[in-house]
Amino acid sequence: MARLGDSVAEAAQCLLKGELAGIPTETVYGLAANALQPEEVLKIYKAKNRPAFDPLIVHLSSASEMEKYAVEIPDMAWKLAREFWPGPLTLVLKKSPLIPDITTSGSNTVALRVPSHPLTLALLQQLPFPLAAPSANPFGYVSPTTAAHVQAQLGHAICYILNGGPCTVGLESTILDLSGAEPVLLRLGGLPREILETVTGKLTERLTQNSNPSAPGQLDSHYAPGCKINLYPFGSEPPLKLHQLRMFSVWPKAAMPQWILAPDGRTETAASALFAALRRLDEESIQEAEIEMAEETGLGRAINDRLRRAAAKR
Ligand code: TXA
Ligand code: MG
Q1: Minimum mean pLDDT among 76-90, 177-191, 216-230, 236-250: which range?
Q2: Cα–Cα distances in Å, from 253 out to 238, 239, 287, 292?
Q3: Ligand 1 site, residue 28, Cβ cutoff 6 A
Q4: How many CA atoms lie within 13 A of 301 on its CB side?
Q5: Total-model pTM
Q6: Which of 49, 74, 117, 188 has the fewest CB atoms inside 10 Å of its own CB, making it the most exposed?
Q7: pLDDT tens track for 17-43
Q8: Where are the alpha helices (DSSP H) in the chain?
Q9: How many CA atoms lie within 13 A of 8 on its CB side?
Q10: Is residue 111 within 6 Å of ligand 1 at its C-beta?
């Protein structure tokens, strides 16, 4: 088991010694190591059982650090950083030679973001290096949104888990590729596309890549619990035979238990509760569930993206 607490100093000590730390962010918990040290980054791949072709996101303490770890940074990157960092947006840029190949799986681009969580920002400010951190879950499973989720699955491989409470956003960051001629959206996430587009203008998407994926979070099956999942459109009436997970309101005629993600009717609340609910299906050994999807707009699109991948055939 990992030590667990809210000491930034203890987390820093582990990372300075070359060990792994669990770190809270506003999106999901990360499994962090020194992004500049190949042997330490390798520990992340081993602990997660992550395929070597899946590059990591590098977490920075501030936007000004972009200059150290990326080259040929377009004006759009600075503009987006000013607008949305710290926050749930990851930018893919051409990498600087300081970033080792293993961190980017050999790609000449690097994914960068400044996370919005006071403990992790304090940690990043103390450290003399940025942190490579994928979501702290075994590859292909649901991302963790509490320190206890991290402990349960990866505690054996981690020196210290920095407990920052439940994640407020609850979905991974939105990923935007700015390394090519025009911006391309690679992953829907915590920053809704509509809001991003107020700065970038209309975006092209490249969201599913099953062969040689450039963002494996985009494999058809990912974020998947063991429970079999059947999806139903927002507001529709499911067959009512199975355990149900619903967005905002109970379905009066259902015979089986229903879990409501957001009794307050807010999509943000549903997003922050989603991954814990998917895990709970497995914790309670529920074999099959009916899940109502969100409305296909704003954060609802990212929720539905995760639900489709969670339900996809493996
Ligand atoms: O919200 C988040 O982004 C969380 C927290 C911990 O920051 N991290 C996260 O990491 O979701 P991960 O590893 O589970 O997903 C990162 C995704 C992967 O699908 C990876 O392929 C993509 O980012 N990615 C990383 N570097 C890339 C690159 N150079 N080009 C394209 N995609 C990249
Ligand atoms: Mg992940």
Answers
A1: 216-230
A2: 10, 10, 21, 15
A3: yes
A4: 14
A5: 0.95
A6: 49
A7: 999 999 999 999 999 999 999 999 999
A8: 8-16, 38-48, 66-69, 75-84, 118-126, 147-154, 193-200, 267-283, 299-311
A9: 11
A10: yes
